[in-house]
Amino acid sequence: MTDTFLVIGAGYAGSVMARELAEAGHRVLVIERRPHIAGNAYDEPDAHGVLVHRYGPHIFHTNGERIFEYLSRFTQWRPYEHRVRSVVDGVRYPFPINRDTLNQLYGLELDEASAADFFERVREPREPVSTSEDVVLNSVGRDLYEKFFLNYTRKQWGLEPSQLKAGVAARIPVRTNTDDRYFTDNFQAMPKHGYTKMFEAMLDHPNISVELGVDFTEVRNRIKARHIVYTGPIDAYFDYRYGHLPYRSLSFEHEHLTDTERFQETGTVNYPNDHAYTRITEFKHLTGQQHTGTSIVREYPQAQGEPYYPVPRAENEALFKRYQALAEQESGVTFVGRLAQYRYYNMDQVVGAALAAAKRLIGTGS
């Protein structure tokens, strides 16, 4: 085992690292706590034969041609541009907010220039823009903030927008045109046969071994490896020496609707002001699958459970920096991924971080 690289986690970060190390001629053992590969991107047919994402919708999009080409080695693609509606007072509006949203909501007939003038009139200038509340008020003003953002944020994060860093809201654009796509990246597509199949191909290499249902905390003192690639929560690696890093979790309510070909008009519908869940996703929009029924998932944010989203607040970043300092002193270990780097990464960003980390690691000959 001493010549083997040990990778903790079979999600994006771990699988990309494993593949790169294997192609560089190294033997790699991947251990994964869950009974499956692909991390939170894991998908599988449900009991009715509909391909579903077990941990909520994963929509691939990137402006990175290099990253798209890299993943294209392991999958064919199905073009897909994600669209979202947001329900306000029982009516579904295009989201992110665009000109059609304004015209429909306020009974207006704005063109692009007058939509820009509208935003300029209603916005509440903030200086400096340091919180998510600042971002939204500075962009679209009080009414749109309260209708579309305020309560959604409260549900999603369990915090006020004024308690979250600006970057959370900055991820959501506001448009003066009628583009109702959720993302505008150059590359938008779904793996043709699903994410799990893509990960299977990525990990299919003679130098890679995978063991599922193995918890690193239970074997870390028994396994000797040349180098460890760790993609789990960084605070867990150090046995929570400085306390737990805050994460936001989710619970998922999957449901199959028999003899219902379409449940909603877009892949996802947000419910900012109603219900305990934040959104409903219908998977057949994402996959293009044909089926007489349809499968949906409702997402319920919660404080406890699997760590999904690092909570972006200044005090949490300060705590992470303390753990990062420990990580930098830890010889023979590479920390990479959303949990190990405490970053709100998109999928393509995790792939990019893993490719960069693998290049550094291979270059050092560790």
Automatic annotation (TrEMBL):
InterPro entries: UDP-GALP_mutase, UDP-GalPyranose_mutase_C
A Gene Ontology term for the protein's cellular component: cytosol
Family matches, as SUPFAM superfamilies: FAD-linked reductases, C-terminal domain, Nucleotide-binding domain
Pfam family, one: NAD_binding_8
Superkingdom assignment: Bacteria
Protein's name according to its UniProt entry: UDP-galactopyranose mutase
EC class of the enzyme, as a word: isomerase
Swiss-Prot/TrEMBL keywords: FAD, Flavoprotein, Isomerase
Gene Ontology terms, MF aspect: flavin adenine dinucleotide binding; UDP-galactopyranose mutase activity
Cofactor section: FAD
